[in-house]
Amino acid sequence: MSAAATTWKPCDLRGIYPEALCEDLLRRVGAALGCEMEPGESVVVVGDFRSSTPPLKSALVEGLVSSNLHVIDCGQAPTPLAYFHAAETHAAGVCIVTASHNPASYNGLKWMIHGLPPMPSDMARVRAAAEKGASRNLRGGVEAVDPRPGYRRWIASRWQGLAGREIGPIVVDAGNGAWSQLGPEILRELGFDVISLFCEPDGTFPNRPADCARTANLTALRQAVPEHGATLGIAWDGDGDRVAFIDENGVHASTDEISILLARAVLSGATPGEPVVCDIKLSDAVQREVLELGGQPLMERSGHAFMRHRLLTSQAVLGLDACGHYFLREAGSRDDGLYSALFVLNLLGRECSLSAMRRSAGPLFSTPELRIPDIVLDYATVVTRLRCTFPQAEELTIDGARLTVNGGIVLVRESSTEPVVSVRIEGSSEPAFESLLAQCLTILSEAEAILRNQIQEAACNAPE
Prior knowledge:
The protein is of the alpha/beta class. Helix content is 38%, strand content 21%. The strands form four sheets. It has a six-stranded mixed beta sheet, with helices on both faces. The chain has a five-stranded mixed beta sheet with strand order 12-11-13-14-15, with helices on both faces.
């Protein structure tokens, strides 16, 4: 498969710079995206702090301007600021140069037009236009704008006084990503005692990978929280739309647990039947919790664009993602890693410790998201073997194959951002989980060692 083919993902662009993702590509894509909007409309452009971002962002702007758009250039900033500023200015589009949680050698592009992220059919249309060199050949203009003051005011208006609840010190691990400076600054402005970890912008990510979802990447934060007697640890990904949490004992709270806590907080006192979009990768316990709280769970294909599109079109009150994107209607239905962190801090202020809230979510019998390199086992092989092993399983195919078997669930899907097959195994009880896990490890024998290592990694997520 060519580099160009693998760069075009279902709902964004992602690839190694400059072999797969280069300036010429973003220039062409920018011109094609311009043709998706009306002449003269505004588009907000932001980039992350990777070393390849400035030249790629410059090329994107060239393309957008060539199709007679007014570019609002917000420089290098967290992705949530791009969404915020686009909403504040009623811009027709927003484009973000970022590879999110991927390694430093990668970069990418994600966008929204007229309030919605692209679906695969939109991607196919934009790709065809970019490959043909579509452009209006009428020049627009560029305006440089700093979105930070407006964002600061918005955050302060919502969360002023939060730190007065004696929440205690917090440790912030920005992973040298987009929140490195602004995140700790805003938290301190709100009155928090912040201990900074890896809070110097550096797109090479010298201290930990940009992915904050994996426990192994948060070792330093897990150690720092109990060492400093902190109430909470907060970690963000490379562009700042994902967030992860460490409790006061140094334990990484799972996205299942955080999702349950958010659902309880948002649905408490809400109108019965409020829709809640749930990532298909989340534990089935999350959907059960939403139902018990009077909400309407909507299972959705994994991925930022799919989740947000469903959230907006269903007017859902909440979107819950297995990788740490949390979408709150009160935050404009945007996935904002800082806003979500403040929402959780507010729960601590009103309730109790994160460890106690985690325990209240109940035991969950499941693996984390397990990843098999597709050169070891490809998706088709994994699915075929599972179907042969569980011929009576009820199968859902909105994203890969989700097999409901006697005593549990097995989910297998192709990652949209990495060359891996994603697997998650969940049991209705601990014995059912152990049995189902053993069966899956047997039928996926080529990947057994890889899977066991990842399971062991997750098992080490306990107080030191």
